Amino acid sequence: MNSSYIVVWNITSKCNENCKFCFRKKCNESTLEENKKIFDNLSNIKMHRLTLSGGEPLLYKDLFELVNYIRTKNPSLILTINTNGKIIDDDIMKQIIEKFDIITFSIDSTNDTTNEKIGRGKKHLDKTIKILDMCNNKIKIKINTVVNKYNIDDFEEIYELIKKYSISRWKIFRFLPIRDASKYKDDFYIDDIASDKVEKIIDTMKLKSNMIINYNKIQEYKTSFFIFPDGSIENNRLQKIGNILDTSITEILKLKENSNL
Ligand code: SF4
C-alpha cells in the first residue's frame, strides 16, 4: 500500500456557481456525525494531504466544526480548502487562515465576458482579486484554471495577474467532458493540437517564473482517491472503488491495489 495518501474529500455537492465544465458528482451529503466517522476511518491510513472540496465546501453548514474535529485528531495533517470564494467575507477568511494550510481557488480568465460564458457569473474576477489581496502572505495560495475553447488565449494575462501575489502553485487542467460537463463538450473541449499549443505556452511561462506551474492534460490525477458527500470513493481515474461509510478504508485500498484499479 502507498506510504502516504493525497485525498480529496468532496464534502457537499451544493454549489452557488454554475460552471459549465463542472463535473461534480451530485449526491446526498453526510451528517456531521457521519463525516466524523469517515475521518476516523480515514485515520487508519497515513495521509500526506487532505483537501476539502465540493461543490462549494463553505456551503456545508458544519464545515468548520468538522475541521476542528480533524485538527484535534491529526494536528499535523496538511489541510487544503478548495473554494470558489463567492461567500468569503472577512470573518470566513479569518477562519480559513486559522484552520487551513492552503487555500485553492480558480481563475479561468481575466475577462469578465469569458468568465460569464464559462458560468462563473458577473464580476467574478473582482471577487477573486479581493480574495488574493485578503490571503496574500497569510496562507499558501494555489490557483486552478480549467483550459477550454473560451480561455485558450488568456494564459499570459492570468500569469501577469497572479505573479504579483505569493502563489505556491498554478495548476491548469484540460476540460474533461464527463458527468454533467459532457453536455458542453462541443463548446469547451480542446483537441490534442490545441492542448499541445497550451502546453508550449505554459512551458515558456515556466522558464521565466519562480511559480510552480503544472499542466494536467490527461484524465488522471495525482490525487490518490476522491471521497464524495455520500461516502462513495473513486480512484484517480474516477472509477468507483467502494464506500467509506460501510467499509474500512484499508479494505477498499487493498481491493483497489489487488484489482489494479
Ligand atoms: S465552482 Fe466548482 S463546484 Fe461550483 S459549479 Fe464551478 S466547478 Fe462546479
Structure report:
- By secondary structure, the protein is an alpha/beta fold.
- The protein has a domain at 5-146 and 220-258: Alpha-Beta Barrel (TIM Barrel), CATH 3.20.20.70.
- The protein is 34% helix and 21% strand.
- It is built from nine helices and ten strands.
- The chain has helices at 32-42, 63-73, 90-99, 112-118, 124-135, 155-162, 185-188, 192-208, 249-258, and strands at residues 5-10, 47-53, 78-82, 102-106, 140-147, 167-174, 212-216, 225-227, 232-235, 240-243.
- A ten-stranded mixed beta sheet has the order 7-6-5-4-3-2-1-8-9-10, covered by helices on one side.
- Strand 3 (78-82), helix 3 and strand 4 form a beta-alpha-beta unit.
- Helix 1 (32-42) packs parallel to helix 2.
- The longest helix has 17 residues, at 192-208.
- The two termini are 13 Å apart.
- The relative contact order is 0.16.
- The model has no long low-confidence stretch (mean pLDDT 91).
- The structure holds iron/sulfur cluster.
- Iron/sulfur cluster binds at residues 15, 17-19, 22, 24, 54-56, 84.
